[in-house]
Amino acid sequence: MKNKIAIIGAGPAGIIAAGFAANNGNEVYLIEKNNKIGKKLYITGKGRCNITNASPIDEFFDYIITNKNFLYSSLYSFTNDDIINLLKEYGLKVNIERGNRVFPESNKSSDVIKALNNFLTENKVNIMLNSNVNEILNKDESFQIDVNGELLDFDKIILATGGKSYPSTGSTGDGYIFAKNLGHTIIPIKPSLVPIVVSENWVRELQGLSLRNVNLRTYLDNKLIHSEFGEMIFTHYGISGPIVLSTSNYLHNYKLDKINFKIDFKPALDLDKLNNRIIRDFQKYNNKMIKNALSDLLPQKIIPKVIEFAGISFEKMVNQITKEERENLVEIIKNFPLKFDSFRSINEAIVTSGGISTKEINPSTMESKIIKGLYFAGEIIDVDALTGGFNLQIAYSTGYLAGINI
């Protein structure tokens, strides 16, 4: 039987759901409030579109933070290889880069959108742009949707409206309202993969300082709860960059006023090796002031704070530095302290944590356990993962399951 299906939201989940639902012989309408499909895809991977991750699919679960068990059926039903092959079928070539991140060979997110648009066109999906959904009504195993003030009838619906991050792309959280009105539980929404505000006002002095190959350790009081190695950047409010965004994902279950950080600027050197390195530098700069003797070891912008925290006079000569002061330097370089204040707003988050409770969705079909004929896909569900293409893959995979099962 041919069903008339509405898919609300033309992001990655909605696009994949629409294409496969139409491929099954349904009459599919992809309803999008923006003037083009895939608006959020345009900004992923800094505008290059980090399509997915090329790691083995069983390793994906190590990068999923929330409700990973819910995603077994979807990720194994439509894998990273499947989305790559689908895009190749529609003319897109890809490259695999550091961290197994997959990008279009052209480095243009628009080429990914073009391939997905061809996928929709070939499967005869009816695309409704500039179409704002105001209300969804459940009418005895069918649905009525208010689109731009006009009531339209559908047999089944897939809600793929995304989360609440990047509202400029259309992810304004309206899907949560629709789902709640239809009887679903919404797990409280929080920003995920988001920059962090720190308590120290002086951090603005370090704005723009980018660090590579550092270790960011997170403590609850004095207990180590998480550690991330890689790149970060200081901002006017605190810290951001890949390892900070990943760290933010792990903090939601902790008492945030007890959180503090320590940065290890030289994780490749243990205390003894770092001490020996500083001794060598001090010999080299024996007749200079301490503020001019650490530039071989640390970025210039951080040196004043390291010296201050080590309790050393900024103007002190290297040949006057005591053993205790040198050991204090080593300690600060390995344990540079910062205090957590808050997360930046959800408008700056890469993804949304929270959403439709997974307990109310069939993980094998993405159909609601509460309302027959209602399906969910993508970020609207209470699932989220780390950066690197994993969240987009979740969108494709859940969209695929919803599309083939509706």
TrEMBL record:
<dbReference type="Pfam" id="PF03486">
    <property type="entry name" value="HI0933_like"/>
</dbReference>
<feature type="domain" description="RsdA/BaiN/AoA(So)-like insert">
    <location>
        <begin position="190"/>
        <end position="351"/>
    </location>
</feature>
<dbReference type="InterPro" id="IPR023166">
    <property type="entry name" value="BaiN-like_dom_sf"/>
</dbReference>
<dbReference type="Pfam" id="PF22780">
    <property type="entry name" value="HI0933_like_1st"/>
</dbReference>
<feature type="domain" description="RsdA/BaiN/AoA(So)-like Rossmann fold-like">
    <location>
        <begin position="4"/>
        <end position="403"/>
    </location>
</feature>
<keyword id="KW-0285">Flavoprotein</keyword>
<keyword id="KW-0274">FAD</keyword>
<protein>
    <submittedName>
        <fullName>NAD(P)/FAD-dependent oxidoreductase</fullName>
    </submittedName>
</protein>
<dbReference type="InterPro" id="IPR055178">
    <property type="entry name" value="RsdA/BaiN/AoA(So)-like_dom"/>
</dbReference>
<dbReference type="InterPro" id="IPR004792">
    <property type="entry name" value="BaiN-like"/>
</dbReference>
<dbReference type="InterPro" id="IPR036188">
    <property type="entry name" value="FAD/NAD-bd_sf"/>
</dbReference>
<dbReference type="InterPro" id="IPR057661">
    <property type="entry name" value="RsdA/BaiN/AoA(So)_Rossmann"/>
</dbReference>
